[in-house]
Amino acid sequence: MKTKRLTTAQAIIQFLLHQHVERDNKRQPFFAGCLGIFGHGCIAGIGQALAQYPQFRYINTKNEQASVHIAAAYAKMSNRLRTFACVSSIGPGATNMVTGAALATINRLPVLLLPGDIFARRNVGPVLQQLEHPHSQDVSVNDCFRPVSKYWDRINRPDQLMNALPDVMRVLTSQAETGAVTLALPQDVQTEAFDYPAELFEERIWYIPRPEPEKTLLACAAQMLRASRKPLIVAGGGVLYSEAHDALTRFAAATGIPVGETQAGKGSLPYIHPQNLGAIGVTGTFAANRVAREADLVIGIGTRYSDFTTASKTAFQNSKVKFINLNVAEFDAFKHSALPLVADARAGLEALAKVMRGWTVSSAYRRRAADLNRQWDREVARLYDTPTGLPVSQAEVIGVVNDFARPSDVVMCAAGSLPGDLHKLWRTRDPKGYHLEYGYSCMGYEVAGGLGIKMAAPEREVYVMVGDGSWLMMSSELVTAVQEGIKITVVLLDNHGFQSIGGLSQSIGNGHFGVLYKQRNPKTGQLDGANVPVDFVANARSLGACAIAARDITQLKSALAEARRQTRSTVIVIETDAEKRAPGYESWWDVPVAEVSEIQPVRRASRDYEKAKCRERYFL
Ligand SMILES: Cc1ncc(C[n+]2csc(CCOP(=O)(O)OP(=O)(O)O)c2C)c(N)n1
Ligand SMILES: [Mg+2]
């Protein structure tokens, strides 16, 4: 047998270099390289291997959590067909990646994590940054990755790689099972050599299949659809990952079934498609939420039915409502006691289109969707174009960015009040033009994620829309953007605090307690003094970006034009008025309220809450 003598770390990098995926006859390398930060727990192992194989691109990031966000955003933009590996030292470097791992797993995005680990040999322990357990020596902080990983392994001997690496690839490339994959790498094992079979490093292709729905269940689905009067499609992220947007566009037009889009599924239909009711659920449009309320059949495609989509199980109020779920993941296909079509979204839609040929909803129902689509657009225009004075409203800012961006440009966001407003108001003109991380809604994803998107689609402008809170949590990857010569445009909306949580806080009777960036007031002893003065423009400039202050809509427009001319990452800072909120549209979100309280508004909120909760349903 031909062998190659390599360290464990060298073998990992050599293996990763040779992995490819193929779907629809298009083949590409699965890994774009490795992101991360070195420490004593990996510098002589993975660090040495990366130095030895520069063809596996290494990018030095500024926070290990951000490495994983970059990888996840890259994977999302690449429809899960490509990703990065992320390396860290042991201890804090490793646990910094746990949040990123949870984000990737929740959003079903492939990322490979290579955290360093304590010595397998043990004789020198406790080593720097080791958490000791009196009851076991077989535990390290890397065990924190277990619940947030779809596959977890610790490589205690170099030869274990031969079993682990194929499983790593199986999970990462599985459309149903993908998420974070963690290979914990003890720092001594990383440097140990072994005679690996040369076969391990041959080119490998992982085929991404398009499984078709099972015939009997497909026939049942067709029967259910023919019997329905008010069907509704809920389009989730699976539509986009499977590149099923054209198939869905054709299916909706042919059958007249209206479509509501989840955060991950927004862009499944062009905004102007007459069957597009836009965003559905808590942050949805009145169009989608009205149709959902009455729907007698819901066809969930590539959705995991988060509470934002189902309005905490209050969205579907028809007492006879039934579900058909088309999903590549069996786990999601069975939700809501649905008829499960376990299949690829595109293959499933094509199969459904075939069996439903000639069938359409009533012309009155078709007209209703088209009317609602237009009515909703008038509401968007109202919020975009109504001047509100200074500071401007968030909706006005979204409107200006939307008008300015080219159809193929990408808007992205993750947390705060922006995701809800973007979900409702963004006019999506390209299936990959809207990128929201709303599975984990992780503050700090934005700047790092923007970088990942731009690396996956360098031909598009990327607009990162971020609140002041998220920016302060993690903006450091701007330095990485400058380092790599990658240009993103950040629009930073400064509303002086956590205004989304502020709105929530008011609604549960808590006023604005602890959610605004206010200075400690010596008179009251509370955080209700003047606004904390933060110079975001100077802050962005100090990280190497081009920074522009915009006070009003005219200045915002010229700042966007300047940003487009720039080759450097650019940050535009604009103050917005949190009180000028875009409203909610006929939906609800379950956030439990204190059952007893000394505060009157809390008692009132509690009574309203108990009433609203009665609308929550089980689908059995
Ligand atoms: C890492 C993390 N911590 C806490 C939260 C809870 N949270 C959601 S939105 C938000 C405030 C975000 O503030 P900002 O970015 O300024 O946006 P705004 O709410 O003002 O629109 C908080 C604290 C979160 N989503 N992620
Ligand atoms: Mg804010």
Short characterization:
With 620 residues, this protein is of the alpha/beta class. The protein is built from 24 helices and 23 strands.
Describe the fold and architecture.
The protein is of the alpha/beta class. A six-stranded parallel β-sheet has the order 5-4-6-7-9-8, with helices on both faces. A six-stranded parallel β-sheet has the order 14-13-12-15-16-17, sandwiched between helices. A six-stranded parallel β-sheet has the order 19-18-20-21-23-22, with helices on both faces. Helix 16 crosses helix 17 (418-425). The chain starts with a strand and ends in a 7-residue tail after the last helix.
Give me the secondary-structure topology:
Elements: E1 3-7, H1 8-17, E2 19-23, E3 26-29, E4 31-36, H2 46-52, E5 58-60, H3 64-77, E6 83-88, H4 92-95, H5 98-106, E7 111-117, E8 151-154, H6 161-173, E9 180-186, H7 187-191, E10 193-197, E11 204-207, H8 215-227, E12 231-235, H9 237-241, H10 245-255, E13 259-261, E14 276-279, H11 286-294, E15 297-301, H12 307-310, E16 322-327, H13 330-333, E17 339-342, H14 345-355, H15 363-385, H16 394-404, E18 410-413, H17 418-425, E19 434-436, H18 445-456, E20 462-467, H19 468-473, H20 477-484, E21 489-494, H21 499-507, H22 536-542, E22 546-550, H23 553-565, E23 570-575, H24 600-613
Parallel strand pairs: 2-11, 4-5, 4-6, 6-7, 7-9, 8-9, 12-13, 12-15, 13-14, 15-16, 16-17, 18-19, 18-20, 20-21, 21-23, 22-23
Antiparallel strand pairs: 1-10, 2-3
Helix pairs in contact: 1-2, 3-5, 3-18, 10-14, 11-15, 15-16, 16-17, 16-23
Bound molecules: thiamine diphosphate and magnesium ion.
Thiamine diphosphate binds at residues 415-418, 441-444, 467-470, 495, 497-501.
